[in-house]
């Protein structure tokens, strides 16, 4: 997810660990809030603030977004 790499100041060619917690990656609550806002803007959907803490890895958050936030898009296929 580009938004996480941007927040973490990671170069494009560096691989983002999908199974490490956001906090293990160096994210703070403030950075997570900024990522949430950018994801909402990009997806055109609201994301629960608690989702970022209940789904504390990129992998789990991606699964949550696909199954809950964007379910109508993925169910249509």
Mean pLDDT: 89
Task: Sketch the topology as an H/E string, one letter per element.
Answer: HHHHH
Tally the beta strands: 0
Q: What's the helix count?
A: 5
Shape: globular
Radius of gyration in whole Å, from Cα? 12 Å
Measured by DSSP, the beta-strand proportion falls in under 5%
Determine the structural class based on helices, strands and strand pairing. Answer: mainly alpha
Biggest β-sheet description: none
The span between the termini is: 22 Å
Low-confidence stretches: none
Keywords: Acyltransferase, Phosphopantetheine, Phosphoprotein, Plasmid, Transferase
Enzyme class: transferase
EC number: 2.3.1.41
Pfam families: PP-binding
Protein model, in words:
The protein has five helices and no strands. With 77 residues, it is mainly α. The chain has a domain at 48-77. The chain is globular, with a radius of gyration of 12 Å. The mean pLDDT is 89.
Summarize the structure.
Residues 1-69 form the Carrier domain. With 77 residues, the protein is mainly α.
């Amino acid at each position: 997810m580009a938004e996480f790499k941007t927040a973490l100041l990671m170069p494009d060619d560096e691989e983002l660990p999908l199974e490490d917690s956001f906090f293990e990656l160096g994210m703070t609550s403030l950075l997570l809030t900024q990522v949430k806002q950018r994801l909402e803007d990009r997806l055109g959907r609201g994301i629960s603030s608690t989702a970022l803490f209940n789904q504390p890895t990129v992998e789990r958050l991606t699964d949550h977004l696909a199954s809950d936030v964007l379910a109508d898009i993925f169910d249509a296929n």
